[in-house]
């Protein structure tokens, strides 16, 4: 099973880092979902919720104020001005 390596970074700290199967985020032109094998992309983010489905079955949720998301060779980097952990214990 292919995996994504994900980093969620705020201006003042690293919010979350790990392996995941899915990342969804509020892109400027609508919700974007990233799976392993996604083509490279750079997208602006709006305020909303970023969801990371970790490989251990836990879904991590972060309220973000805006920023950007980049994908390159199954590495997803989410950089935001501010992030608040909404939940990081929701089992699937």
Automatic annotation (TrEMBL):
It is a peripheral membrane protein. GO terms for molecular function: ATP binding; proton-transporting ATP synthase activity, rotational mechanism. The keyword Calcium does not apply. It is found in: Cell membrane. GO terms for cellular component: plasma membrane; proton-transporting ATP synthase complex. Its main location: membrane. Residues 4-83 form the ATP synthase F1 complex delta/epsilon subunit N-terminal domain. Keywords: ATP synthesis, Cell membrane, CF(1), Hydrogen ion transport, Ion transport, Membrane, Transport. It holds the Pfam family ATP-synt_DE_N. InterPro entries: ATP_synth_F1_dsu/esu, ATP_synth_F1_dsu/esu_N, ATPsynth_dsu/esu_N. It comes from the Bacteria. Belongs to the ATPase epsilon chain family. Produces ATP from ADP in the presence of a proton gradient across the membrane. F-type ATPases have 2 components, CF(1) - the catalytic core - and CF(0) - the membrane proton channel. CF(1) has five subunits: alpha(3), beta(3), gamma(1), delta(1), epsilon(1). CF(0) has three main subunits: a, b and c. This is ATP synthase epsilon chain. It comes from Jonesia denitrificans (strain ATCC 14870 / DSM 20603 / BCRC 15368 / CIP 55.134 / JCM 11481 / NBRC 15587 / NCTC 10816 / Prevot 55134) (Listeria denitrificans).
